[in-house]
Amino acid sequence: MSKVVHRDFIIPIKGLSVGKHEYAFAIDTPFFQEFEGSLISEAALKADVVLEKEVTWIKISGTVKGNVVVECDRCLEDLEIPVKTSLNLLVKFVRSEGEEDSDDVMILDPSEAELDLSQFLYDYICLSLPIQRVHPKGKCNPLMLNKLKDLGLGESTEKKSDSPFEKLKDLLN
To answer: Minimal CA–CA distance to 13: which of 103, 110, 79, 148?
Structure first.
């Protein structure tokens, strides 16, 4: 499978002067459709990025704000989630002994002419989403909730006493 390059998110770094440079990116639905298996079905985001270039490294910082639409984990209907996250990445052109790429540091060959921010932006946005993506109580699709209840998979109000620790409580008496 070939990697899709997002021309809109590529910064030409060859010949870029030392100092701070500001960029603004609009991140919308087609951006997320390029990533196979993306949880995000719709998006309207703006990324403000500050790129600080030095001779041997580039520091990238900024923010991403807006809204995304994902599937509700409970009722499978669309769920709009606000996104507000900060970006932080250090791009080095020289690899130290034994140093590898990490979450906060990317190593680029000094001959690289461009820096593609698409995967970096995608990762930060996905990591900013809550672990459990569900509608507020009472806002889920009632038909789906009834179906889950009929199958015994819905939210139970009964206290379960099948816990293996219930027997241990008897030892206290």
So the answer is: 110
